[in-house]
């Protein structure tokens, strides 16, 4: 059982699957940036491509995001809390890769991955042994059946479901912010969240915390602005702005500083 007690609780109305589909598609779906679209194809030539399967399960009328805890057998993210996901193979679309990774890592049958849509890609940067690994990661949102129980493989140590309302609740109580230099000349605020699973406290941060937060802002229609950078404030009224900013800043950096031989 996973729990996390924030300093104060808020009432959140229950929502339906149809509502979640509509809200997430309205805010995040972008056909031109899929790997089948022209801009998506161009990005694939600039950097390695990976995907996240953002899987949502309805529990007592509230959407919960499925998070995996990476095992010691993986190379880059031991012990991290991330959605199911991995590299996009040659010839695959981001949706095909997300379905494959979800099946391999948590046993979700491909026909049970109820696709909602995909967001613009986010940068993923890992450092291992003084070497930096750079990826562009496509997030594919989907619903899972109410009776789905993950069957994990060797890449996953464990898993839990976190209610999406925790991401907006913790904004006003117990979350923290990390300010990082984003591609040398840009600063960005990463929002860090906590969740206790089997009496162990886990940190949800980076791109995963970002995805959880913007999803929760959309679903629960948060009016209060949230800072994602010194000059970037986002609420339900301009949610697409932060996704545009991340994506276009990433693209401009890649075109200016990187080449395929360096990646």
UniProtKB/TrEMBL annotation:
UniProt xrefs under InterPro entries: CoAse (IPR045121), NUDIX_hydrolase-like_dom_sf (IPR015797), NUDIX_hydrolase_CS (IPR020084), NUDIX_hydrolase_dom (IPR000086)
Domain named Nudix hydrolase: residues: 46-185
PANTHER family linked: NUDIX HYDROLASE, PEROXISOMAL COENZYME A DIPHOSPHATASE NUDT7
SUPFAM superfamilies noted in UniProt: Nudix
UniProt superkingdom: Eukaryota
Source species: Dimorphilus gyrociliatus
Pfam families: NUDIX (PF00293)
Name of this chain's protein: Nudix hydrolase domain-containing protein
GO terms (BP aspect): coenzyme A catabolic process
Record keyword Hydrolase present: yes
One MF term in the entry's GO annotations: coenzyme A diphosphatase activity
Record's keyword terms, sorted: Hydrolase, Magnesium, Manganese, Metal-binding
Keyword Protease: no
Cofactor(s) required, per the database record: Mg(2+); Mn(2+)
